[in-house]
Each structure stands twice: as C-alpha cells, then as structure tokens.
C-alpha cells in the first residue's frame, strides 16, 4: 500500500506546501537515494523524511492563492529550475511502481505572527528548499516534514564597488547565488577611495571621470531584481574617511572640503561654514531615493586626525549625518569605529563589528550589532572556507543575543586597484592590479566569482542555522556544501568549479589571460 504523501515546509510555521499526486503509477519502485537531510543547505531546524522517492510529473505545476507579484514571479523562476532538474529523460529511469507528483500548492497562514514579516520571502525560502529535495528528477522521499526558520534577520554579503566596479550582469548573478543560500542582504559599498560608482544627477562631478558607474535606472533595476529574490539592498556612502572617490567635488564651489594629511585627500573636512556637511546631506538624500531600504550605511571607519580634521570636528560631522538619516526616517548603520573611535554613534545606530572587538563590548553600550569579523567573514582573505562555519553569537548570553541582528561576509576589492588603494603609488601594486579597468571585466568576473563562491556558501549556513555538532571536517559537512555548490553551478551561478582551487589570478591551475 502506498503512503499518503504530504510535504510540510514550515518556515517559522507559516508556509504550508502540500504535494498532490497524479493517479499515474509506475510498475516498480525506484531505488531510494541518499537521505534528504544530507543534502539540504542551509541546515533546516528539523527534517523528518521517509518512504520511497516520488517521481515528478512532466506536467508539474505550482499553485498558490497569493496575489503577490513577487511570489508569482518567484514561482515562474523556480518552476523553470524544477523542470530543468527533472529533464526529459527522468521518466526513462523510473522503472517500477511509484506514485507521481503533479502539483505543489503553496499557502501562508494569515495569523498575527506571520503578518509581522513580508510573507513573500517565506515563499522564496520554501521554494528554494523544495528544489533541494529533487534528485535525478524525483523527490528524494515521498514523506517529508521540514520545520525551519532563520536564526537571524540579517544574513548579508558586502560587495566593494567603491574600488573595483562590478559589471551589472555579475551583480545579478551574485544575487541569484545569494538567493540560493537564503542570504537576504546585499550591502552595496559603492563609494570608497577609487570611485563613487552610482550616478548623481545633483552632483555629476562625483563620477570624477571614472568611465564605469551605475546609472540611476540601473540601480533601480538592481534593487528590484534583488527584491524579487528576497534580498534587501543596503547602500553605503563613506562619509568621513575613505572618501577620495568624491574628490571631484573638491572646493567650496563644488561642495566638499578635504583634509590633506600625510597620505592624501582621503578624509572630509568639517568646515566652519557647513559647506561639506550640507553637500553630504544632499548626496545622501539623493541616494535615499534610489535605495528604499530602512537602513543606510555611512561607513565612518578608520578615521585619521590631523591639525585641521580633529577628532572633535570629525565627530560633529558624523553625528550630524547620523541624525540627518534619522530625521529622514532611516536607521543609521556604521562600522564599529563610529562608537569606538570617534564616539559619534547616536542611539539607534546599528554597528558592524569587523576588527579586534568583542560583540559584547558594542552590545553593552546599548547598540544592535552585525557580526562581520574579518577573521571569519572577509572573503578577500583567501583561506579555508570552513573558518566561516562558526557561531556568530559567541560571547553573548541569551539576552545579549537579542541585540545581534545577524552576520555579514565581505568581498573587498583592494587587490584589484590599479595601485594600492587607488592613490598610494609608492607602495607595491596589488596582486590583481591589471584587472581594474573595463578591458579586464571578463577576467575580473571570473576571478571575483571564484573567490566568493563556494566559500560564501559556508557563511550563509552560519547565519541561517549554525549547529555546533556538525563539524567542518566531517564527511556530512562536505557533502552538504558540495551538494549546494553543484546546484549553484547547474543553475548558471558563477563559482570556482567543484574540486578546483581559485584565487585572484588563476582558476583550476590556469592563469587568467591579460587583456
């Protein structure tokens, strides 16, 4: 007798996905593949699976009562993935007597708890999990119950386009990869030493003659593309140090003053007339129209004091801008130095921890935090990906953990600058300096993709549901990561090939060609 088949994907309890079988049956059972729980990534909270495989009908459809455009587009996108997974020949391998899956019905409970979140994102998570249940055209087991929820609300990846420009198609591809591992925040660091890479119509000289930048229409398209995949885009405009990319606005007429310290014009001067702060407010307000997210990142890291740019004047500038964001209804976001260096952080600022600091130090001061500590989550430090498999709440008690929003990985592009930091000509050139310009876009795309993936798969798992009993040197851990890596590659996400080693200059032992 055949078992009743119901797949229940309960992601914080709201998403119910029921499987409908067709009456068509095959003459014998298909051999049962590996257990479903060994291939899912990120780790679900719990999985119960049993029974033989369930063949997916070539006429398989996904139904939902949701009227959300995001959900409908997501269903279309995932249905294409599923139909590619089952292919045209999986029926030929299905000898035996087995039931056939013809329909997936998705619904979300409408209780108060569920309505506190954007339920369209739960559909995305459920559909992603469903695709991971498919192997060789079949649902791995006929009876599967999955209870799941992310441990943290902020699961991010930072991309540094303020040094090396990321081609737009590459950004789209990275967003597809993020969606597949349930990352939900793209931290878009688009202003730094090398460039201000987003078009400003109010201050066109921000381009500073750089040929590569994102038009405002491209930014809107990027934000929309991300939202369709359950990903928020948080902008970062460096607003104290790391500002050489805005040098095109230098002087009173154009709007910004800079301190000329021992290594160059890399810090904003808070002039007595308020020219700099007023121009910065204008820049930030224009960028807010392009990035609708609640959070706005001001950078504020690594400040250097001089005779003109004193700590006091810099603190005043930073606080003025942080309060300005709040006046505009935004939640200010900054690196840890906004508290630990200038002490400019105002109540309500979210702090991003990155270097030589315990999260407890920030939390004890009353600030919400994001764990982006470099020894675990800086992807540009090419190391064993397993270092990203870690409990990001280490050192915090349960009450303190409520102040931890989540974690974030970072892909800095310092090593792609044409000279060190785009202005330190006396230093040795970075390792991949020749990939800075547009003539090396294809090499840069392959290089940076091979550094991000599959290593970011691991950090994404830590942000969703870290489990200490799963050891990074265990066969199960490797099986899970490799399974996810394989799925991403099959979807066209650019990664370092399975079984290969990739670095800045080579892939699978082959050097990238100079343009």
TrEMBL record:
What is the name listed in the Swiss-Prot or TrEMBL entry for this protein?
A: beta-N-acetylhexosaminidase
Q: Does the keyword Hydrolase apply?
A: yes
Query: What Pfam families does this protein's entry cite?
Result: Glyco_hydro_20 (PF00728)
Q: What is the lineage of its organism?
A: Eukaryota, Metazoa, Cnidaria, Anthozoa, Hexacorallia
Q: Which organism is it from?
A: Pocillopora meandrina
Q: Which residues form the signal peptide?
A: 1-17
Catalytic activity field: Hydrolysis of terminal non-reducing N-acetyl-D-hexosamine residues in N-acetyl-beta-D-hexosaminides
Active-site residue list:
302
Instruction: Note whether Hydrolase occurs among the keywords.
Output: yes
Task: Cite the EC number.
Answer: 3.2.1.52
The similarity comment for this entry is: Belongs to the glycosyl hydrolase 20 family.
Q: Where do the TM regions start and end?
A: none
